[in-house]
Amino acid sequence: MKLIQTVEAEGAVLCHDITQIVRGVTKGAIFRKGHVVAKEDIPVLLSIGKDRLYVWEREEGMLHENDAAEILCAMCKGRHMEQSQAKEGKIELRAACDGLLKVDDKGLKAINGFGQMMIATRHGNFPVKKGDKLAGTRIIPLIIEAERMEAAKKAAEQATGGLPILDLKPFVHKKVGIITTGNEVYYGRIQDTFTPVIEEKMKEFDTELMDHAIWNDDDTKITASILDMIEKGADVVVCTGGMSVDPDDKTPLAIRNTGAQIVSYGAPVLPGAMFLLAYYQAKERDNPRTVAIMGLPGCVMYAKRTIFDLALPRVMADDKITSEELAALGQGGLCLDCPVCTFPNCGFGKGV
Model pTM greater than 0.85? Predict the structure, then answer.
């Protein structure tokens, strides 16, 4: 830090806030710590009695907070993101499109455990809209060692395998097939109130309902129907009902008999414990596809939010879900069924 004449301060960096007081009008910082003095700022500074200023004196091996903020931002900025200008060591990232936010937890912890710098993000694996704030980064001191920033960069790269800490996966257009199961619906004993729920949730994404079938509790018919929809081009097949352990419930068997890889039958989420997720490898020569097959328990029909709301955005972004990730939903997997639902602005689905 050094003291200079204000008239010679163009391009200098302020070491502290500059406060302006006008009685009855204003009292506050007119320039903040870290502000780079511009030519037009000098008359303003002189008008409030600042003939001399304390400014940052460049030191070998030290970085100004805004320069360091750019380095920190580069560690976490992934695809389809826009950044704000660095100000007071801070940069914000916003979504450049609708999509699914991914956060590398190991990389995030590596940076935030380093000291004198931080990254705060919204929860990963949740959908975001274009323009939504994704993360904020901050360098804590006015100046920071270049060596520390380089060490942090290496730690982040080691944790993430060289990838950015954040990624935004755009939602993909999907052709959807829905199979409604159950003797009670097939034989007209009750009205199908499940399918409209699925259709409404699909409207939140770029989807095309290409087929819908209703079958009784005959696993051979359900299996054939799933495979038929895949052959017609379905990217996602949703089977509603028939997911419990009752003797008449054959949907899990039907999905298994397609030859699909079962990720999990059951999830530590309430509502939605009897959820089934599988992936089928369609072997078309010109268009090999991975088709997501979901078996939905009856709670999806009547509960406001369920496991389906946690899995669907990931399916729509081609973000393959693992059994380990489903298992991790146990902490935060209990919906509190609040009188006024604020999902996703609540703890549901936000685990460790």
Answer: yes
